[in-house]
Amino acid sequence: MQATAAIRAMVEAAVRETPVTDIHTHICPPSFGSLCLWGIDELLTYHYLVAETFRWIDLPSETFWKMTKREQADLIWRTLFLEHSPVSEACRGVLTTLERLGLDTGARDLESYRRFFAGLTAGEIVDRVFERAGVREVVMTNDPFDDLERPLWESGARPDPRFKAALRLDLLLNNWPAAAPRLRGWGYAVEETSAEQSLAEVRRFLTDWITRIDALYLAVSLSPDFRMPEESARGRLIAGAVLPVCLELNRPLALMIGVKRQVNPALRLAGDSVDRSDIASLDYLCATYPRNKFMVTLLAREDQHALCVIARKFRNLLPFGCWWFLNNPSLIDEITRMRLELLGTSMIPQHSDARVTEQLLYKWEHSRRVIAEVLSDKYADLAATGWRPAEEEIRRDVGDLFGGTFRQFLE
User: What string of DSSP letters covers 110-169?
Assistant: First the structure.
């Protein structure tokens, strides 16, 4: 028991003190203006809480969307925090965030929280959050088809060096008829009716943007019906443009599979859902393109074991994070244990997927607790065999899990 307690203390210290590279977020630096989301009203109107609020209120969705953000936040605070106990992970996350910023959650005083944030700048919030969350750097989600973001990069914007870029490909791959005319407008001679005849120009577009933003990887969110190979614009673009450019420039392709978009359109961003993915497509990609690198996260809980097994067979596949609906302590615990048992530390246990800057505080606070618990159990299992992990070995392993494995995969 004494040895187990000593191991737990070493693990908890290592997990608490090791800075994190958060490999997938939606947050932006203050220099990106309105794209940098922060403050209590942004936290309360996050789409997780919007969906939860509509579980309780009988209000036409169009009425809700006509409200100001402050009015929406007031409604969500009253519904989820005052009229009901805030036991959900999304609600608890708001409270953890406030507590980590030094605010009195017991006061239940929304106006005092607003005054606190009003006294800070975006830059001050970013500095404070990164320091208290123990985050060294984050990887953004950067979409060249976003009319607010694209001009920033075209004007030569260079974000805070703590913010790294990832090139998002959702519109390009999932809606070629909409992407093609925009590419033509930017000077890329693509055929709007044929992705097949446009591959060279798409490769040029991808190369230009990877270079412009110094993207660490390329990423796309995919529906459960994603298949490879497939005779479609998406399939041809992946095989003939995306993967060749990734190989040439040594960039991984991050596949985030399993989201069913807009099952309830009235909820807007909160209206997406989940379904099982086609695992055979990952087998095909990893085997057919062995020199390409694939980072993969799947949205359905039922797919997590198969993902681990596939990763055991292909070293060019790196599982990462507990995405979206899986970002709950009970599921993080289950999935992290499974991955450690099947893959050791050759995976990335978590990413925040944060959209609001301060969410880094609660998502890493909560995840660290779970990861420390799981690691403590696994090192105790080793100690029971007579193999006693040294503190430097534990810190090495935690360093790998919190960024080292990711950086090695990029090399």
Answer: HHHHHHHHHTS-HHHHHHHHHHHHTEEEEE--B-TT-TTTHHHHHTT----TTEEEEEE-
> What is the Cα–Cα distance from 308 to 312, expressed in whole angstroms?
6
Question: How far is residue 152's CA from residue 300's CA, in Å, rounded to a whole number?
Answer: 35
Residue among 46, 16, 22 nearest 132 (CA)? 16
309 occurs within a structural domain: yes
Q: How many domains does the chain have?
A: 1
Burial class from Cβ neighbours inside 10 Å (0-12, 13-18, 19+) for residue 384 reads exposed
The greatest distance separating any two alpha carbons of the chain, rounded to the nearest whole angstrom, comes to: 69
Q: What is the token pair recorded at 187?
A: 């000077």
pLDDT in tens, 328-348: 999 999 999 999 999 999 999
Q: Which two tokens stand for residue 104?
A: 């009195």
> Using CA atoms, how far apart are residues 80 and 57, in angstroms rounded to an integer?
10
224 in any annotated domain: yes
Helix (H) / strand (E) element for 185: namely helix 176-185
Residue 225 belongs to a domain: yes
Q: What residues make up the domain containing 267?
A: 140-319
- Residue 135's beta-bridge partner residues? 20
Q: For residue 158, what are the CA distances in angstroms to 131, 138, 337, 356?
A: 21, 15, 39, 20
Q: Are strands 253-257 and 259-260 parallel, antiparallel or unpaired?
A: unpaired
Report the C-alpha gap between 84 and 69 in whole angstroms.
Answer: 21
Identify the CATH number of the domain in which residue 257 sits. 3.20.20.140
Residue 244 lies in a domain: yes
pTM over 0.85: yes
Mean per-residue pLDDT, 108-126? 98
φ, ψ (nearest 5 deg) of residue 21? -100, 110
Residue 68, φ and ψ in degrees, nearest 5: -70, 165
Reported as a single tens digit per residue, the pLDDT across 13-54 is 999 999 999 999 999 999 999 999 999 999 999 999 999 999
The kind and range of the H/E element at 21 are: strand 20-22
Give, to the nearest 10 degrees, the angle between helix 391-399 and helix 359-384: 140
